[in-house]
Specification:
The longest helix has 41 residues. The protein is globular and about 70 Å long. Helices cover 74% and strands 4% of the residues. A two-stranded antiparallel ribbon has the order 1-2. It contains 10 helices and 2 strands.
Length: 273
Amino acid sequence: MGELAGVVLRTALDAGYLLAAGVLPPLIAGIVLQFVTSLFGVCCIEVFGIRFCVWATAPGVMMHEFSHALACLVFRHRIRELVLFSPQKNGTLGWVIHEWDTHSLWQRIGCFFIGVAPLGFGLGAILFLTLQLLPYEALPFPDLPDGGAAGFKEQFRATFLGLCGVWINPGILSGWRFWVWLYAMIAIGSQISLSGADLEGAKSGAAALTLVLVVGAVVLALLFPDGMPLPVAAIRFSATICGLLFYLLLLFGGLALLLMACRAGYRARRRRN
């Protein structure tokens, strides 16, 4: 009985490790980024006005809605209406209306991915533009020691420091590619935050997705009772995404603080006058 309990416990721990290593770091960073980008948006509107902010981030809005629509196609949801960009008085900038079969597990799981699609699609676009517009040192991929924690730390460190180093490299700052990249970072990054409707839709498939992930992790743990190290490519991808998310947290947090300082200074001058 004691041996069986040990096997069950080891299997549960291995399953938890697989889930935690592959899913939790990007998920937690994405949740925190949600609040930071929302704060940045509020500050930006107060300083520059809503009209400027809406049109300046229009490419990000269109990418946000397009990612919803693309995920709908992948998970076989029926798109009833797609509007990529159409500012409304209630603050809505675009929308996707879709229908799905509540009896289909695939389509139910799809609700989660459709809801969070702007986060994944936006980060993918930022990674792609970084690789295309900036030199290698901005987003390096060093040789990793293994597929464990050491490999994760090495890639995370390389990603974060590489992106931060862009700001102290005169050769990069003086080129037009950097400014196009920076605009894309702000326009896309400010729109990867999820709306209330997005989160509500994601909740519909979260339970089904969690069940599938847990079952899959348990099966893998049973197939590899001595433990299964994650592939180096999976560790590299997860660490790169986390490094990018952490960089975006600091970037939008810093911009929000700068805008708040500008707003406070403006209000102080108005009171003195």
